[in-house]
Amino acid sequence: MNLRNVIAYSPPKMDMFVYETEHFNGVGELLEILGSFELADNTKKPGVSVTNIINGFALPLKTEHKQFLVKVLIPLHKVKCLALYHAQLTYCIVQFLEKDATLTEPVFKGLLKIWPKTCSQKEVMFLGEIEEILDVIEPTQFNKIQEPLFRQISRCVSSPHFQVAERALYFWNNEYIMSLIEENNQVIMPIMFPALYRISKEHWNQTIVALVYNVLKTFMEMNSKLFDELTASYKAERQKEKKREKERDELWKRLGELEISSKSKEKCHKK
């Protein structure tokens, strides 16, 4: 059977795998075929020209190719056994984006929508995939997804699970991602700063604290004026929070005293 026919036949099976059974042998192998090479005459003779299946899609991409990405490949991230085929899945996603950069926004929207909330292992995998995607992203496309993306990264940095926080902070070791952050520091710094500053004072893991200090130092070098403004704003907001907490505690204390006083009066009346 021609490999393209195999691919055409497979999406319904994958839908069943994602939404119904979660049992479908060969998902990893099928994704590997998608991202690997197809022999032109379906043979393995030396010298036969080969064409990458996804890269071989004609531009502009057909609707069914885009739907395959959004309705099949993205939902495959939901499955519990993601680790079994995540490397192949990531490779396919990256190839789609290298083929058509305009798919960047729907891919990020899809991944952020199904971001794992309770499985730290999957969260680390998602972060690794995001970094691979960012390595091939165009600056114009990055501008469209930077705000929701870094709100999620801020939540990951704040994770009590140190491996999730550590993996998110490793983004700042990537030169290309750093260049994107620097170009857009006025957008990204205000999103990231509150979480980073709080963690630098409160996190239980010293490795995370050290990584956070490095990120804060990088931000200060990028834009010292904005860094100072964010520091002052954060401290002022913290003072307001402390004042609100103090007022709330005093209110509860007064309510407690009133309740005790009321009970005492009731006892006196009964006598």
TrEMBL record:
GO terms for molecular function: protein phosphatase activator activity. Pfam families: B56. GO terms for biological process: signal transduction. Gene3D superfamilies: Leucine-rich Repeat Variant. GO terms for cellular component: cytosol; nucleus; protein phosphatase type 2A complex. Belongs to the phosphatase 2A regulatory subunit B56 family. This is Serine/threonine-protein phosphatase 2A 56 kDa regulatory subunit alpha isoform. It comes from Polyplax serrata.
